Amino acid sequence: METLLGQGRAAIDLIVDAGTFAEGTVGARTFDDPDFGPGAVVGTASLAGETVTVIASDAEAFNEKFPVVYSGVIGLEEGYKMAQAVYATLAADAEKKAAEKRPIVLIVDTPGNGPGKVEEIFGMNKATGAYQLALAEARLAGHPIVAMVVGRAISGAFLCHGLQADRILSLTSEFQTMIHVMPITSVSRIIKKDVELLEALAKSNPVFAAGPSFFFKLGGVERLVETIDGMRPAIIEQVAEIRKAKAAGAATQTGPRGRGSLGAERGGREVRPKVQELLRSEFAAVEERFRPRVA
Amino acid sequence: MPNWTRLQTNSFLECSARERAVGLVDEGSFVELGGPFDRLVSPHLVALGEAVENDDGIVTGVGRIGARPVFVISQEGRFIGGSVGEVGGAKMVGIIDMAIDFHDRLVAEFPDLPALARPLVAISFETGGVRLHEANAGLLAHAEVMDALQRARRKVPVVALIGSRIGCFGGMGFVAAATDAIVMSEFGRLGLTGPEVIEQEMGKDEFDASNRALVYRTTGGRHKYVMGDANFLVDDTVAAFRAQLAELCAEPVDSFERMRRIGSPELVEKQLRGVALAADLKPTDARDVWRHAGNNDPVGLADGPLSDFRKSVRRLAL
Q1: Per the domain annotation, does A190 fall within a domain?
Q2: Could B94 and A215 be called an inter-chain contact, meaning their C-beta atoms sit closer than 8 Å?
Q3: In a domain? residue A292
Q4: pTM of the full structure
Q5: Number of helices and strands (H, E) in chain B?
Q6: Of residues B34, B113, B202, nearest to A292 (C-beta)
Q7: Is residue A86 included in any domain, yes or no?
Q8: Domain range holding A172?
């Protein structure tokens, strides 16, 4: 079976208009230093004739300065570089109306954030945290953001590069895509439950099992894509749908909140909305106490 | 409810999530929302035959500090390491959303409402991040919290309080970094990758997770204060955390933007100067960075009393 695992650049070319990807330029910003954040690929392309920002990981790159960065790991430089690309996108369309802001396409194939001593000394949590905030800001400003999982979407790295998108698509597991926090064997070891038990439970409850289909049931992936050729039209379609939802003022229908509602609809996360409803009703009952005391 | 006056002198490190929630706000003002009587247990732990808690390990509610309504989220490390699953994540997002909604309604009704009467969110972190028993739901909840923090920007200040046993790691390390202001004690720890995982990735020679001094040097409150990641370093008492929070409650929302470490293109450029320094300096220990910041005796500084540390420490300028 075909796979795009470890081939972020190839995936870009399969998705955007042929030959249009210009790496290293986003709006007015250029990324000229080849040694800066080599694990992150950022640039501009056309998609169905429209200008889009593309952000991906390069699984072949190795960051000499931060040797934990290889195989698509997002390190300190990579996280901030990705954030810079998003801010450059925001700046490029700052004068445009919300409905006309350019899409951002995230090609997702990353195994993790940089795990290391230097990373912790300087704060890896800030680097990819900064990227998440930038994506959330762009999404809320109107930029349609589509994440396309073509390989590994693992735990904290998926949180940074994927889960702030308006919509998330994933190739099905036949293409060796992986979405998880931890493989079920590791979960089994840590929470001390037999793998057989976990696998049996996973049939009815998708909350801990690994794979795109489980995330689909939880509403964590909006749509599964069954062929490589299907990625491009699916992304184009999502961009149109996102714009429609945002124009209708339904910002809560896309992004993390949209996936929360979808989780309940698909029966994967049914408690979430009940908890929030309960909090609201309990606060309403005491709200008066917390309003300004007007003389 | 715990005795408020007695709580104030307690070690913040030793306090339960509920004690912290009650003690941080004004005496008698805390109202728990989604409390134990609501029995918001994790259905996923039930399915696995695991023990549950009726608050799912996260205490949520609202209190006051002076005129400010303070929405509180407090994580309990003694329940599965303070891990965040579907219910706990929904409680966190629900509280931040209510604070934003309350802010918007109040400001619509009272356009001149002074800053110190507008809502604020305080999060007392004690967590390793995603709960593995319901890992996928936990991960998705983390993304919702990050989104909520961005939506709260320039409306509702969000303050992180970190001084509990487990520290603040994993996906919640991002969440803390994304708040407006961070208050830590020297016993607080903040990071992404926990010590055991670093050891596993880099080998024991590079990072010995059983070396507590090394662990604290790398992610502890004193170090994070030198790095500028913690805005404030306070004593390990409920009263000290509360006093700092109360001071922040007097600030208008604009001041909080200036306390941030990430969240704007300018701040990304600033942090990248730190990353360039990391590449140049190639520190093998956090002490190398302390020395670079102008602290000639990092060992003495690390081991001395906190009051001396606060007086004499040089913080990294980027």
Answers
A1: yes
A2: no
A3: no
A4: 0.98
A5: 15, 7
A6: B113
A7: yes
A8: 8-269
